[in-house]
Amino acid sequence: MTLLQNSRPESISDAHLKLESSEAFRCLSVYVEQEMSGAPDEIAEDFAGIEVRLRDFLNRCGSEITAALIGQLDVRANGIVVDEKAFRRRREDGSAEIMSTFGPTQIAYALYEERGGHGGKLVAPLKMRIGLVSDFWTPRAASIAALFVQATTPAEAHRLLVAAAGMTASASSLDRLPKLLNEVAEENRQDIEAEIRAVERLPEVSGVACIAVSLDGVMTPLKDAKTEQVGAGKAAPTQRFKEAGCGTISLYDGKGKRLHTIRLARMPESHKVTLHAQLEAELAAIRERYPQAVVVAVADGAEENSRIIRETVTTLGIESTEEIIDFFHAMEHAAEALRAYASSETIAKADIALWHDKLIADRNGVADLIRALRYRRDHSSAKNREIIEENLGYFEKHRHQMCYAAYRARHLPIGSGVQEAACKTLVTQRLKRSGMSWRIPGGQAILTLRSWNQSNRFEHAL
Predict the structure, then answer these.
(1) pTM score, two decimals?
(2) Are residues 281 and 370 in the same domain?
(3) Which domain covers residue 366, as residue numbers?
(4) Which residues contact 108 (CB under 8 A, 6 or more apart)?
(5) Residue 281 belongs to a domain with what CATH number?
(6) Residue 139 lies in a domain
(7) Lower CB density within 10 Å: C or N end of the chain?
(8) Helices and strands per DSSP (H, E), number in the chain
């Protein structure tokens, strides 16, 4: 945006704030003097009310200062040029109520109309200069509101913002905000993520010995998904769920302590294409920063997730990547097989505990477990034999990825607890509340904000 050559900017001195003539500051002064003159017992009895009223008076002052500062940024000239198009000043100014961190704030601004006749495009340079989000939110207010609404529903976020900060944006405005932000985030995703990586704070290079990559999914309720029958028969329940994808990249020190985790989440998408691209870009940057660290993949053995991780490390040319089957998933399979053979739950629990300890401590643990399950399979009835056979196949297929005692000796992670937690905290806790269902854009808006927040990237992204 530039001024036209024949423009003469008007004085904006009237936008300056004079404290001695400010009604908001006068009211604050009167209120403070009134409270300070009160009896101590009266102040103590109504201290909560005093805090609320004082906050409201301070917000009024903050709102007035904000409006005055914004007023000084307005452009009041005969004409301006925006995107190589000429605009002329209109006689009538515009005005609007915006939402700042101090609550509703009234502003006035010059309006410009595109040259070439009446009814042309209108622009307000002031709004462009301060970066109003959706012509309503100041950037900082939008960031705070987005932080609240990524954590809870718009209605709850409204109540919290009113109580905590006096920001009275409606629930409907809060509902629209993440979607508006996500339109920009999706359109510029790669650039935004690269900018975040350039400024985020990560552990010292010398302190990172291991980079762990993990991928999983969680079923998410969708508004537009086709209804699928669950179970058999006409009376079987139906559901509209598809799998959202979650990915994590965690950094560990030489003793196996987790130092940092980057969390990613995408709404359901065929073959998790976008999540795959994100994971690849993040791992490339992390690998470049920590070239000395060993890379491991910790997952549950699901083929699609394993494929994405293998293709990622292959594309990046990362050699000697350890593929580790999550220990807790392995124990779930072991427990199911052992219960199918045990004559009582007491015996089953003792058997499960024994093999839990053996798999962790004994370098031959998985080989011994496979032999034990083969014996149990061969000495079981048909129904139990089928259960044991299925779980035995899991261990036979992944035995080379279950060297848990050796992994622990090298202080490598053997569990995908961080990944499981990501699925729960990123998706389940926010998108799967009672009665909820989502469309892709709205759900992705929340997941993007939550992944930024849980990766300590929120302040860099907004």
Answers:
(1) 0.87
(2) no
(3) 328-405
(4) 71, 93, 94, 95
(5) 3.30.420
(6) no
(7) N
(8) 19, 14
